[in-house]
Amino acid sequence: MSALILALIAGAVVGLALGALGGGGSVLAVPALIYLLGFTPAAATTAGLIIVTATSLTALYAHARSGTVRWRAGALFAAAGLLPAAAAGAAASRLPQPILTAAFAAVAALAAVGMLRPGRTAAGPATGGARPVRAAGTGAGLGALTGLLGVGGGFLAVPALVTVLAFEMQAAVGTSLLVISANSLASLATRSATTAGIDWALIGPFTGAAILGAWDGKRLAAKVTGTLLQRTFAVVLLAVAAFMLVDALI
């Protein structure tokens, strides 16, 4: 199968995940770029940020039209992660490739386990002002994760918005896309040195397919229960994490 076809298929899957779950696209994008398209881990994390930024902005527009984005609270949550994202992005290029791969696999596995655990429901509509110190700390942690590993952090942002800021699930999914977009842009600003290893002939189609997939994911989320989507994604994520961890240790 040609690299172009693989890029289109992988992009569609990434977009579906982002559109339906408000996150998770990057934890599939980076392994796909490494193992299907032959990118180095450093180039894959940078390319993953490019793909996820473009796709998240598209999905954010779709959710904004539906009124499921809490702009003020989301902007404050994202602001706490901007500096950590930029600092971690600058540090990522200095880390050995196996360490990046192992760290990515560990985070993906933790995210999958969290998705398989029984969810905690919000206590009520979000006010945007609940637990500001904890919210800032969580936002900073997500920013650092985005910068270091090239992931948008949506798979962590959604549960954080539900439990820390008491968002209802639909608002958490929509608002997480604002957080992902801001953190990814901040991290990309520090990664200009690693764009040299990116094959734009593959990243362009990958990104285009992901953007189209995000719209389909938004429609899929309205038809299929969130629990089923989340658990299916978690099982796939566990398999990917196990493969990457073994590859990093061998």
Question: Can you lay out the helices and strands and say which pair or pack?
Answer:
Elements: H1 3-21, H2 25-35, H3 41-65, H4 71-92, H5 97-116, H6 132-149, H7 154-164, H8 169-188, H9 200-223, H10 226-249
Quick summary:
By secondary structure, the protein is mostly helical. It is built from ten helices and no strands.
Q: How would you describe this protein?
A:
The radius of gyration is 16 Å and the shape is globular. It contains ten helices and no strands. The protein has helices at 3-21, 25-35, 41-65, 71-92, 97-116, 132-149, 154-164, 169-188, 200-223, 226-249. The longest helix is centred in the N-terminal third of the chain and has 25 residues, at 41-65. Helix 1 runs antiparallel to helix 2 (25-35) and helix 1 (3-21) runs parallel beside helix 9 (200-223). Residues 120-130 have low confidence and may be disordered. The protein is mostly helical. It is a multi-pass membrane protein. Keywords: Cell membrane, Membrane, Transmembrane, Transmembrane helix. It is found in: Cell membrane; Membrane. Belongs to the 4-toluene sulfonate uptake permease (TSUP) (TC 2.A.102) family. This is Probable membrane transporter protein.
